[in-house]
């Protein structure tokens, strides 16, 4: 199910085999797509936000005699489990992105369901993860920094999970346009950013408190 049009030469004598503009595809993947540039711009902005939050964490640490102050370091179990889930989620996202770029409806549907399952699983574990931080956001500056980092990442995760759900519903209910495959491809690319940013945040929150 795709509206991708194959460019074909004109048969009339005056056309000279020229390509009809109306026959050109109305979408493209990668850097030829405005969606790709929009996604890269969003990632650049959000990467800056994460970088500022991490700098705040280490600034506070550099001005505090003991770290974490008056609290135990976050428990490793739930955070490590979520890291493993996040890394494993790259597989279905790679599968889905590849299927979308091949305009393979069946595999896109399978991949979107798998991606959604991983997102829900990660969010479920995140609930327990917040409880294992051993500090509240209003306890001190350390608690505020940790909860801000976790909150920022959770917000990105929820946003991407919602986007994945909407796209999954569209691919099961229709109508479908070629540009929807581009949306799926860029959604998967954005998920890679969510994964990479989590690895950084995991290192800061769980090991920054132990080094």
Describe this protein's structure.
This protein is mainly alpha-helical and 211 residues long. The chain is built from 6 helices and no strands. The N terminus is likely disordered.
Regions with little confidence, pLDDT below 50 for 5+ residues: 1-16
Characterize the largest beta sheet: strand count, sense, and whether it forms a barrel: none
Helix-strand topology string: HHHHHH
Structural Rg: 22 Å
How much of the residues is beta strand, in percent?
under 5%
Provide a concise account of the structure shown.
The protein has 211 residues and is mostly helical.
Please give a handful of descriptors for the protein shown.
211 residues; mainly alpha; single chain; disordered N terminus
Indicate the topology.
Elements (H helix, E strand, L loop, with lengths): L33 H29 L13 H13 L1 H12 L3 H27 L9 H33 L4 H30 L4
């Amino acid at each position: 199910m795709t509206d991708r049009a194959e460019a074909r030469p004109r048969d009339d004598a005056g056309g000279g085999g020229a390509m009809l503009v109306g026959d050109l595809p109305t979408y493209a993947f990668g850097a030829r797509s405005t969606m790709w540039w929009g996604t890269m711009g969003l990632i650049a902005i959000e990467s800056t936000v994460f970088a500022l939050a991490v700098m705040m964490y280490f600034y506070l640490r550099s001005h505090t005699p003991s770290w974490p102050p008056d609290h135990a370091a976050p428990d490793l179990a739930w955070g490590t489990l979520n890291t493993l889930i996040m890394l494993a989620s790259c597989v279905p996202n790679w599968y889905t992105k590849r299927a979308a770029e091949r305009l393979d409806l069946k595999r896109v549907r399978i991949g979107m369901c798998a991606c959604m399952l991983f997102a829900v699983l990660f969010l479920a574990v995140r609930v327990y993860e917040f409880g294992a931080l051993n500090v509240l956001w209003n306890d001190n500056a350390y608690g505020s920094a940790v909860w801000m980092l976790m909150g920022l990442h959770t917000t990105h995760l929820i946003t991407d999970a919602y986007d994945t759900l909407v796209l999954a519903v569209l691919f099961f209910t229709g109508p479908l346009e070629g540009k929807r495959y581009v949306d799926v491809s860029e959604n998967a690319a954005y998920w890679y950013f969510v994964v990479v940013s989590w690895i950084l945040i995991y290192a800061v929150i769980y090991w920054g408190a132990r080094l």
